[in-house]
Design a protein that fits this description.
Shape: globular
Strand content: 5-15%
CATH architecture: Alpha-Beta Barrel
Helix content: 40-55%
Order of helices and strands: HHHEHEHHEHEHHHEHHEHHEHEH
Organism: Pseudohongiella spirulinae
Pfam families: HpcH_HpaI
Structural class: alpha/beta
GO molecular function, one term: metal ion binding
Family: Belongs to the HpcH/HpaI aldolase family.
CATH topology: TIM Barrel
Strand order of the largest sheet: 7-6-5-4-3-2-1-8
CATH superfamily: Phosphoenolpyruvate-binding domains
Number of helices: 16
InterPro entries: Aldolase/citrate-lyase_domain, HpcH-HpaI_aldolase, Pyrv/PenolPyrv_kinase-like_dom, Pyrv_kinase-like_dom_sf
Largest sheet: 8 strands, parallel
Length: 314
């Protein structure tokens, strides 16, 4: 009887992610599914959200989206609220069913700090509670992109061939390790593809004239995972409507540079232009915004069009 009880208890702990050994013996499993999809050569589709309710977290976790951009640039900055939202996205039923701790929908947080600001303390707090990526708004130079990457990285072991850019993130991995379900969190908590085994996405937003002028420096900064064009802010920076040909030419120039350097590029889309953006070479587009409780009808339509056009049936 005692043996049966212990066996049952161990099974429960394994499903809950508390029995470390069987869950951690999965070094070949990508924890960041968006990176896995990009490595397979497929585009990933996401959504901006500023709704941090538990209902929204649960709905988005099962939405068939690849990633969520949790927008703390234009909403209140609250680490407690963010932590609750991230925990709300944890789908234990899915973890138990698939047998490993990969999240189907990747949580990425957009900072309130622009590229010219010092983001280090924000980055540290966001990553320490378990986010799988950070989006940096209004990045305008390679130097700003470099500072962002360094804030996301731990200092590397002596002799590492990817020691640069030198990381400045302090060590406190306990909560993030628990959230990821990874005993080797410190080894995996690095920017991809600089570290091929890294699970963190460092996303730089180009949304100004100066950012466009320095786009190649930003894109080629070691440790940058993806670039995201912000058409609304870019058009304001240029003093033109977003539909103006000069704005569209600037956007086209950025995505061409991303293709040249094999860096995924993102932009906001809608059902009318998603096919064109995919054909243009965007691999990291969003298909909706905000999400009141899950995804709206138009977002679901856009996601369906995007996945069909990209040949995604996973």
């Amino acid at each position: 009887m005692k043996k049966k009880c212990l066996t049952a208890l161990f099974s429960v702990l394994t499903v809950a992610g508390l029995a470390a050994t069987p869950v951690m013996a999965q070094d070949d499993v990508r924890l960041n599914r968006s990176i896995q999809t990009l490595e397979n050569g497929d585009p990933v589709f996401g959504l901006f959200t500023g709704n941090f309710s538990l209902a929204n977290a649960r709905a988005l976790a099962r939405s068939n989206l690849d990633y969520i951009l949790i927008d703390m640039e234009h909403t209140a900055w609250s680490m407690e609220t963010l932590q609750e939202f991230l925990l709300g996205m944890t789908d234990k039923m899915a973890v138990a069913r698939q047998g490993h701790s990969q999240m189907r929908t990747t949580p990425i947080v957009r900072l309130p700090a622009n590229g010219r600001n010092d983001p280090e303390w924000m980055v540290k707090q966001i990553l320490d509670i378990g986010a799988f990526g950070i989006m940096f708004p209004y990045v305008e130079s390679g130097e700003e992109a470099l500072r962002a990457v360094k804030a996301m990285r731990y200092p590397q072991p002596r002799g590492s061939d990817i020691a640069e850019p030198a990381g400045v993130r302090g060590s406190s991995p306990g909560v993030a390790s628990w959230y990821w379900g990874a005993m080797d969190y410190v080894q995996r908590a690095d920017t991809w593809p600089l570290n091929p085994r890294g699970e963190l996405l460092a996303v730089m937003q180009i949304e100004s004239v100066k950012g466009v002028e320095n786009a190649e420096d930003i894109i080629t900064t070691p440790g940058v995972s993806a670039v995201f064009v912000g058409p609304a802010d870019l058009s304001m920076s240029m003093g033109l409507p977003s539909s103006h040909q000069e704005v569209q030419d600037a956007i086209a120039g950025v995505v061409e540079l991303c293709k040249k350097h094999n860096v995924p590029c993102g932009i906001t889309t809608n059902p009318r232009d998603i096919r064109d953006r995919l054909d243009q070479g965007f691999l990291f587009p969003t298909v909706g915004y905000w999400g009141d409780a899950g995804i709206s009808g138009s977002t679901a339509e856009n996601l369906s069009i995007a996945r069909e056009h990209a040949g995604r049936d996973d």
